[in-house]
Amino acid sequence: QGVSVQPGTGMVVPGQMHKRLKLLPGSVILLRPPPLVGMKELAQRLEDVGPEAAGMALGQMDPHLTAGALALMQPEAAAAVFSMARPAAAAKVLEQMKGDDAAPMLSHTNDAALGLVLSHIEPEVATEKLQDFFSRDPRLCMQSIENSETWRRAVQTMAKDTPACDKVAMLRTLQPHQAARLLAQSDSTAAAFSFMRLAARDDKFAGQAMAELGKMSDRIVHLVSRNMEQDLHRTFLLQQVACQVS
């Protein structure tokens, strides 16, 4: 894409040789688009960066390309990436997958993660997809459909302007780790009030859910910190290059 340059601006142009250019006022630099990445290469990159980073980046990638890449990964690794993604982003990827490609991954995906993803797909479409994914296992197909309906109701309960006591009653039908995942994906205000009421009603359950939320938070903080360190390292290297070229 084109980048407008301010008068007298200097910049380093990357390539086989670094060159520092002094540009005239109003100059426009046209940068080459990044090279295209194939499904096989993307699958390897997703494995290299780890499930947390790959999952968080899922929403920034082309759903069709990502679906193909997940199908090429080991089922356990693909499920880990899929489970770490935001449900809305994972839903777009899942809609692009075919039965034989998705079934191995979904068989390693926990019910909470899959249920939240399916809640972002129209009910009729979700049912058709599950029938396609689990065509060879009718029992698992029916179980997945029932699970998706349960999670759809849970998401709707957290989203609706319903009393906190109704939200608490619904949360207590889940396992603590499931409740934590649902709270993490819900509106922050609704989640906070619901959690306070939950703690008043069942402090043991709330404590277990809080522990699960803490684990999720630690993973995110660690990931953000690691990325910040990498950014600082890249900035330092660029400064060193600039000093050498000047």
Spell out the blueprint of helices and strands.
Elements: E1 2-4, E2 10-13, E3 19-22, E4 28-30, H1 39-49, H2 51-57, H3 63-72, H4 75-84, H5 87-94, H6 99-106, H7 111-118, H8 123-133, H9 138-159, H10 164-171, H11 176-184, H12 188-201, H13 203-245
Antiparallel strand pairs: 1-4, 2-3
Helix pairs in contact: 1-2, 1-3, 2-4, 3-5, 5-7, 6-8, 7-9, 8-9, 10-12, 11-13, 12-13
Can you give a write-up of this model?
This is Magnesium transporter MgtE intracellular domain-containing protein. Pfam families: MgtE_N. By secondary structure, the chain is mainly alpha-helical. The chain folds into three domains: 32 residues, no CATH class; 124 residues, MgtE N-terminal domain-like (MgtE N-terminal fold, Alpha Horseshoe); 53 residues, no CATH class. The protein is 69% helix and 6% strand. It contains 13 helices and four strands. The strands form two sheets. A two-stranded antiparallel sheet has the order 1-4. A hairpin with a 5-residue loop joins strand 2 and strand 3. It is globular and about 65 Å long. The mean pLDDT is 79.
- Work out the helicity level: 55-70%
Overall average residue pLDDT: 79
CATH class of the largest domain: Mainly Alpha
Count of domains? 3
- Beta strand %: 5-15%
Shape: globular
CATH superfamily of the largest domain: MgtE N-terminal domain-like
Low-confidence residue ranges: none
State the secondary-structure class.
mainly alpha
Q: Give the helix tally.
A: 13
Strand order of the largest sheet: 1-4
Q: From the coordinates shown, what is the CATH architecture of the largest domain?
A: Alpha Horseshoe
